[in-house]
């Protein structure tokens, strides 16, 4: 009875251990991303005034002219913590809590892929491998809405695999209310539907008519319907789609990297950056592929076909996110957990008992010197890989950080002289959130992304860039 009780509480102990790790990695007293100041201050304003329907602080930009709070539900979630602990500390305290929620969603999806006790324990290994991805872990702890968006993407994958229409209806609605990237869940679900049709046709040898008929149209429709409901329920529903056109298309797809100085997250990811984040999972995947070659499961054909179909269905959203990550490195936060789910599914195609026997046989054939070399190399990998990736995540979260009181003396001087509605000129658009959080009686020039100013007034945007970046700037007062 005590042993069974310990087993029952093992997930809770593991989650507490992960939460302690997240608390350890959090850069307390500072934000790694300036946008976090924006989220914290907007949530604080909502506590006093309710939802925002205008953003006069950036009236020269399309952000202020066509404002929509595309993180509305996230800002509501931050509210109680901000009320209890203050603007900055409340936001920072919520970061590891929301990250833990995302990790729990990943564990749940892994668990339902194979509910047996053995694989339930193995699922925690894959959760741990996911946390070794430096950029994924960093994005979880920035204090932004990323954990919610990642969690919705993970739930979308699980809901499509198990055809849970009600779950996807709720996911679509909450995603649309929480984060501007809700279209990604529809792309993920659509890619899985296409993959399901192809898998039914090629692996299950179904006719095209049957494959089309059996495809998960209803779950996809539920997701789209839920997204539509979320948009209609959004307090800024009148301007949300127009705003997101600029956010997703103008900034995300038609990125003006040659014209504007954009945030690093919109830059293309290098293959080395992607491989660095996926290395632990790639090692697990290569181990599983070797097992498929030499210790394949010998289940009945329908069971094996179903498992291969699921692996193919999961490959499509992974491929989609890989392409998106090559375009903009911010998508690495979605690629890592979905890649983990895919590798976890591939690992289930291996007869691990037979695989261990095969490995033992190969090991016994090795001579003493290669055996010692392999032992040392394996030990170094197991020891150094987590330390190296943990250090990369720590460095990313603690380098270039912005203390809560950054610019406080400067803004105090400006506040003493400025009248309400005056405009503050600042040389960099990414300083806006920090300045605005300190003083919201005045207006600012540009913020959150330079594309918003460029979209509203290209000439002014170019003049500001020349004034702040060129060696021969124009007349400052004229600008």
How are the SSEs placed, and which strands pair?
Elements: H1 2-25, E1 30-31, H2 35-49, H3 62-65, H4 72-85, H5 87-113, H6 117-131, H7 134-140, H8 146-161, H9 165-178, H10 183-202, H11 208-214, H12 217-233, H13 237-253, H14 271-294, H15 301-327, H16 332-347, H17 352-365, H18 368-398, E2 402-403, H19 408-417, E3 423-424, H20 432-438, E4 443-444, H21 450-456, H22 458-469
Parallel strand pairs: 3-4
Antiparallel strand pairs: 1-2
Helix pairs in contact: 1-5, 2-4, 2-5, 2-20, 4-5, 5-6, 5-8, 5-16, 6-16, 7-16, 7-18, 8-9, 8-10, 8-16, 9-12, 10-11, 10-12, 10-15, 14-16, 15-16, 21-22
Can you walk through the features of this model?
By secondary structure, the protein is mainly alpha-helical. It has helices spanning 2-25, 35-49, 62-65, 72-85, 87-113, 117-131, 134-140, 146-161, 165-178, 183-202, 208-214, 217-233, 237-253, 271-294, 301-327, 332-347, 352-365, 368-398, 408-417, 432-438, 450-456, 458-469, and strands spanning 30-31, 402-403, 423-424, 443-444. A two-stranded antiparallel sheet has the order 1-2. α20 links the parallel β3 (423-424) and β4. α7 (134-140) packs parallel to α18.
